[in-house]
Write a structure and sequence with these properties.
With 128 residues, this protein is α/β, with parallel strands linked by helices. The chain is built from five helices and five strands; from the N terminus they run E-H-E-H-E-H-E-H-E-H. Strand 3, helix 3 (64-73) and strand 4 (80-84) form a beta-alpha-beta unit.
């Protein structure tokens, strides 16, 4: 699997960040969907096949951790990048169980975003 064959869901309550990440990933060839919070993300996940999700931790209505736990309780895990603002206090064991491949802190440079997703796509490729 390559980035051009990947469907990505960006979940963040900051519209500028969603747009910036979407444009960057689309330019790299990915199909990108967006959601402003966990509730919107659940709606997107019900309709679309998503290979990797980037979710912010802090959002209104439903935060990223609640989103991941809700998906897990329903029998679904999506390979995810957990986007935190500061120190990550979550249990690594729980994060792994919930499908989190990587935790990254804000701010994230656009070059690092593309590099991160290229690495994860390679890691998720069948036979990798």
């Amino acid at each position: 699997m390559t980035l051009a064959e990947t469907s990505i869901l960006i979940v963040d309550d900051e519209p500028v960040l969603r747009l910036t990440f979407s444009v960057l990933l689309e330019k790299a060839g990915a199909t990108v969907h967006t959601a402003g919070d966990g509730l919107e993300a659940i709606e997107v996940l019900a309709k679309e096949h998503i290979d990797i999700m980037l979710t912010d931790k802090q959002m209104p209505r439903m935060d990223g951790l609640t989103l991941l736990r809700t998906l897990y309780k329903s029998g679904t895990t999506v390979p995810s990048v957990f986007f935190v603002n500061g120190i990550d206090a979550e249990s690594q064991a729980e994060m792994q169980q919930l499908g989190v491949l990587e935790t990254v802190t804000k701010p994230l440079h656009p070059r690092d975003l593309i590099s991160l997703f290229e690495r994860l796509v390679t890691m998720l490729a069948p036979g990798a």
